[in-house]
Every structure is written in C-alpha cells, then in structure tokens.
Amino acid sequence: MKIIFFLSKAVAGLSVFVCFYLVFVANPFRIRDSSGLDVSGVLTDREIPEFRLYDFGNFLFTKSSLLGKPYLIYFVYGNCKSVCSVGISKLEKYASRNALSAYDLALISLNPEKDRKEDSNLFRSVAHWKKAPLLLFPENRSEAESLARSFRISVFSGSEDEILHSDLLFVTEGNGKFAAVIPDFSETKQDLSSVFTRTFRGN
Prior knowledge:
Layout: H1 2-25, E1 42-43, E2 52-54, E3 60-62, E4 71-76, H2 83-95, E5 104-109, H3 112-115, H4 121-126, E6 134-136, H5 141-150, E7 155-157, E8 163-165, E9 168-172, E10 178-183, H6 193-201
Parallel strand pairs: 4-5, 5-6
Antiparallel strand pairs: 1-10, 2-3, 4-9, 7-8, 9-10
C-alpha cells in the first residue's frame, strides 16, 4: 500500500511539473518587457495554419472561413478542470461586452469525440452565453492535438480525460493572420477589452 501511495504522489508531482513547464516555459509567445514584467498581449503578423474543422451541424470550417471577420480563437475541452475552464468563464464575460461585438468567438475542442455530443460538458458550459461561441471539432483527439501544436500550443495527454496544454488566446483581424496572442489568458488579471479593441482598430 505504501508503494502505491508514493507512486500516486510521484505521478501527481509529475503532472504539476508538466503543467508548470507547458504554461511557463514552453509557451513560445511568452515575452517580458525591459523591467521583466509580463505583457498582456503579443502583437504578431503570423499566418494562421491551414485546418479543417466541423461545427455542431457538421458544416466544414476552414482557414478561409476566418477571412473578412475578426475572431477570438481558444482551445478547450469540456472536462477541463484547470486553465481552459477558467478561460471559458472569462471569455463569456468578454464576449458579452459591446466593445467586443465585432468579434466572433471560436472554441476549438481538444477532445472532439466527447465534446461534440449535445449533452457534453462543453456544450452545457456555453449554452447560456449571451453571445453564443462557435464550437469547432477536429476529426479526433489526435488531430486536435496536432492542430494545437501547429498553433504553437504545447499539449500533453495526461490521461483519457486530462489534457494538459498551454493557455493562449488568439486574436485575428479577418486577413488570414494572427493579429495578437494573449499568453496565459486564464491567469492574467488585466482587463483585456482595450487590448482587443486597440488591436482590431490597428492603433
């Protein structure tokens, strides 16, 4: 019994270490200003990767679907109990504000086999939103993780129901490129409404 106890503690410790690494070390967009403080957003001009996703109605959604309209893009999964569960709650608040009415919100599932069901935790968590997000699903979990990595999100499958991943919010302007990336979105204490609005207006 003692061996099992110590093994469980070791696994828990390893999971915490991996989370720390993904969020604080492997995040490729994390930058600091000259004083060493984290900035609230990283302006960029990087091309959005090609992708093929499907919504709840099984309609195809690709990179071309992003053209002509600004989006906020966030990777999530319904059983998340860490960063993306907090991020979803924050996005609901931002999405309901008039200052962000120009943006559509796209949530990309990291666990599509479970999340695409209408009684899934992901579906229930956004069903009451004032401005409904677009839920998008890769073909399967492997494809979801591959897509996340193409967005430069670090992903580690901890178990069948646990997916550890870095916490990035992507801002697009409708031109096929990322306009900005918000690192550690769920952890930031700043009100990012002005960042989104300033980015979209090009100021």
